[in-house]
Amino acid sequence: MIANSSIADAAQGEASGYNFAYLDEQTKRMIRRALLKAVAIPGYQVPFGGREMPMPYGWGTGGMQLTASVLGADDTLKVIDQGADDTTNAVSIRAFFERVAGVETTTATGEASVIQTRHRIPEKTLRADQILIFQVPIPEPLRFIEPSEEETRVMHALEEYGVMHVKLYEDIAHHGHIATTYAYPVKVDGRYVMDPSPIPKFDNPKLHMSEALMLFGAGREKRLYAIPPHTRVESLDFEDHPFEIQAWEQPCAICGATDSYLDEVITDDQGGRMFVCSDTDYCNTRREDMA
Amino acid sequence: MNMTAPREESVRPHDWPGLTDAVHDAQQRFRRLLGCMSEPGTLTSMALPSLPPGAAISSAAWGTLLALCDLETRVWIDATLSGAGLAAALAFHTGARVTPDPANADFALVTPTTLTQVEEFALGSDAWPDRSTTLIVMVETIESQGDWQLCGPGVPGERRLGLGDPDQVRPLMRVLHANRGRFPRGLDAFITCGTQLTAIARSTRLSGPGLEQPELSSAREEIA
Question: Is the pLDDT at A63 greater than 60, yes or no?
Fold first, then answer.
């Protein structure tokens, strides 16, 4: 059966000798069963038998294993790294799935059915027929407070999350405001505290009641978790220090957007700098629309 | 019930249909299952060539087993559903083991009536809620309107589900309704009828005829 699909792959001019989307079927089924648990228990980290991928941990091996398990021949894949389609990580992963799965790829958010992302959620609102797959470095939101996995597991079991608020409170005590700006902890459906991966807190509101299914994969830690569509996702905060997202004083220097997440770009050694959209597709689309 | 039991001579394991393509057919089925479990109460169809005569499970249930089972999974089968040599066919097509112990099952093939007799399915623990049995249920009808009201994750507002005679499916709905009180422990269910399939996740809040308001969880005993 595997031989058959390799022959089919070769006929389409892709890398031969690999199963469709690199992973073997047994591994995909194991990950698929874990994904079904993950969507049934939103925000809970399901362990899975993470495989070695042909790239180092930290480059998105968790996200890739989820993508490989979810992806079909008729999917269109988009891969972004910090919002950009043209950075090393995004280009490599996109090329990888072009070779081992032969799927169509795109940089246009609206045309993709599966989007693998590192550290951003696209600016364009996602639809119900899209799946967003996050690469996650450290899935445990309590890890920097409690290093023991045994302990954090019991804390999740008992819904013992007071310490997370203490950490945010310490921010306020030190800085006068909550200084956490990325990987900002959220509570999913009023139960599990979850690390949304190192997305800027600017993206946290997009997790709430999203139309699209969101899957999270951590390759080194071998955990995956999910937020189903239409699920309550609240960023932790205090009544007198409500959650706020970043804001900029100027619009994007390229497309003039005032509603997108901006990256600071240093332009010379004289202190010159500009702010531009981190989401390259969003920025390009706006520029083309204006032209 | 187990694989060594003599099988019915008339139906051989390979009379049961397999996946048309081990890679792409399985992937397409999984995406439908994922869609249903992440949006509980939505309907999908799982077309398959027809099952052999005497088969007591739905073709959607068989398609689910083909997509998800392998030699790492244990399946519990209700005695009334084991017709046409299901256990042998399952072993032949997927390599999955049939277990007589419901507490040990990754998947359980059941009818609503089964749930009045067998209660030992694995719920997982508060620390490991994923170590639970997923029910694959046979019902008489599935409609996107009817007695049962779903809300919670995956459901914008509320979604309706009709599963035929409410008295008949009430044992199932009672069990799934109880998920709320013991969350994150609980049972997830794929509900099937012919080629039709829907799902109810343990995170789903259910209401309908004969279901009481959820009790607050008093049982927190199972932590590890």
Answer: yes
